[in-house]
Design brief:
Blueprint: E1 12-13, E2 25-29, E3 33-38, E4 44-50, E5 53-61, E6 65-70, E7 73-79, E8 92-97, H1 101-104, E9 106-112, E10 118-124, E11 138-143, E12 155-157, E13 163-166, E14 189-193, E15 203-207, E16 214-218, E17 223-228, E18 234-241, E19 249-250, E20 256-257, E21 260-262, E22 278-281, E23 288-289, E24 305-310, E25 315-321, E26 327-336, E27 340-345, E28 351-355, E29 360-364
Parallel strand pairs: 2-26, 15-19
Antiparallel strand pairs: 1-21, 3-29, 4-5, 5-6, 6-7, 8-9, 9-10, 10-11, 12-13, 13-14, 14-15, 16-17, 17-18, 18-22, 20-21, 23-24, 24-25, 25-26, 27-28, 28-29
Amino acid sequence: MVAASIGLAGCGVAAPPGAPAPAAAEAAARHFDVERVATGLDRPTFVGAAPGDPGALWVLEQPGRVVRLAGGEPTVALDLSAVVRTGTEQGLLGVAFHPGFATNRRLFLHWTDRAGDTRVVEFRAGDDGTSIEPEPVRELLFVDQPEENHNGGQLGFGPDGRLYLGLGDGGGAFDPQRRAQDPETLLGKVVAVDVDEQEATWTVVLRGLRNPWRFSFDPALAEVWVADVGQDEFEEVNRVRLEFDEEPKNLGWSAFEGHERLADHELVEGGDLVFPVVTYSHDEGCSVTGGFVYGGTRLPDLVRRYVYGDFCAGTLWTLEGTPEGGAIDVRREEAKVPQLTHIGQDGDGEIVFASAAGSLYRAVPPATPPPN
């Protein structure tokens, strides 16, 4: 699902002069520990809270179930397994609760259908907000997927009130059809739609992505952080200023992997070229899982730091954003989460993690070491 695809090595050339160097891990840190809060789930791909339901965690299971976890007890809110195709990177991949969910009960789900194609569909929760009505309200998007990998996954509401979706490049090593740079397809893009419009018209916000498994917004700065799963060499995190009146920015794939230029891959003109603020090599992991800029209260040393990790290694990192839009003070955290698929927030804005191994974890203050 989030593992990097295996392909032939590309021929890299240097990035253009003046391209900012990516940040790298500088030291270890222990900003938090993790504790397991749930087990027995079936390959969870999302964990988070719904507006108006702060005491519960909502979970997606890759084979197609939406689970609500309250008081340690899971209940199935919706079962879509009959219409969901499950594969390594296919399944029930994303959910977004409408900002007004507490009153309007609207939510949106992204999955791979039985034919292997992408669907984004609107649903309604029941009046009690704990279950989801099985009949969909409407389909917002259908995308024909040429391959079984690089389906993307994330759904989320942006600071402009639109619903955003990250889509991969359609699969295959090194984007063989160059879809990520192609302005005529939604593949390899971050796209957005106004869900209050009668006709759902998706527009491209960012292009040049390989497989944006997870992204998040920092509304305090009108920015989006996009973690893009790499090919053979690098995983990357991008920090992008949202400027809605400008042409979509270009994150470089497949002309670039990280900061490395790939020969014979053209970069489409138009839109600012944005380089990642941090990368790491496949010596350290194989599939980046993006997180968010922490704004909770339980971990004061972590405030305004971006948290992210790696699916394969279970490693977690945090970094500090600079006023200029870069990143500094990248720290490898001591805590780890195996098979990390999602980094979410509970109802208090505190960090929760999903593991494809079937568990959920919570970030907690680091334990005080015993005196000598």
